[in-house]
Amino acid sequence: MRTDTLFNEKTVFSYEIFPPRRTAPVDTIYHTLARLKGQQPDFISVTLGAGGANANLSTADIAQKIQDEQFLPSVAHLPAVNFSKDEIVVILEELKQKKVENILALRGDLLPDKEPKKDFAYANDLVLFIQEQGDFNIIGACYPETHSEAANSVEDIRNLKRKVESGTNQLISQLFFDNNYFYTFKEKCDIAAIDVPIQAGIMPVVNKKQIERMVKMSNVTLPTKFLKMMERYEHNPEAIRDAGIAYAINQIVDLVAQGVDGIHLYTMNNPYVAQKIREATRSLFEA
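^ that's the sequence the OP posted. Answer follows.
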């Protein structure tokens, strides 16, 4: 099932998970999926894996398992910098065989210790190439606080507009902790006539190291109230977990009340956190 059709009927709520690291047992992802079963998000996306996916398990394998066992649409992440055109063709054929119709097409992070492939300079190039290879629903990333490599927000919105015009059918935002950034970004998209559904990416922070890593990797602003929460509870693991869950719930309640197209929850493969947020907000997506 194509995930872009879901927005015609409701406010969408989805999850993101990632494959196990190279050094982790393959079964860890299956344990995560088993514990997520029954929570019934509208779809689940699968990243290529933090620090490199386990060689014995592909993103396509996990995406297929989600569809076969949880009866949910799945989304496979595809970062352009990791693959050549020939490699992308092979991956797309595998996705077709496994009946995975949805792809999150990304430029991908440029890593200092890994030489990027040269066939796709931008996500837009990958979108155009995927369109030539088959009938996929293509999803793109967007950045409420502006992409870190863009000169300014105007250039960033122009690039996003180009990505949508190339064939991107829906967007998922990078995480943010101040909803006002998302609302300002959405206004700019409306002015630019970017008229595809935009899901707000929400990450519940459950420990201080997690947020330090996110800030280092992303251009994300931490509000004063968020910093105070981290400072107050950083030495109490249960308290900081519960505070992070509460903060994410408050963000979601406000976003849904303001008419957001959907929420994409970065679960960090933590079923407990995902369940608590799902239980607290489920009725918002049924109204």
